[in-house]
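Person: Show me a sequence?

Helper:
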Amino acid sequence: MIPYLATTLGLVVLVMILASMTNLVSAQADQTNTLSTNQNMSSNATQYQKPGVIIMKVQGGLIGAGSSSAIVYDSVSEEAITIRGWTAGLSGFEGTAFMRHIPDFDEGEANRIIRESGFFEANTYYPPAPNTTDYREYNIVASSDGKLHSVYWTDTSVDVPEKLQRLPFNLGYVLGIGRVP
């Protein structure tokens, strides 16, 4: 339970910082959108979607013995950073990082995948099965359209919706290095 709290707290702090930046950009965009809508009252007025953030961390398991992977994406910079195989050692964190510009199509796909997975309706915490010590942990924090939600589960957790279980793999493909043009 303590690792879950520490991981979630760190991710939530990062999301809060990004969300505050997002609110500033969102307020500016809302003002711009209001002006353009007032100037052009046609039914084809531009639809505006508030900026979003996705942070995903996967770690643990016998095979992964302490290694982790993470993806951080924000729609303001339109950049995703994927960190693979990072571990905490005496000299700090070690791993391989990749940065990738996310085109509008892939951003739309990521938003669709999150929406259709039931992420924002899912429970916040799915505990590991009793008496298990070796499992992979999944922690996803996302904000979209003014909503902020976090979900934690393991590969031994029960009652995790199937679409939610597939979410790390689907997001990894769309936002990670799996879909580089």
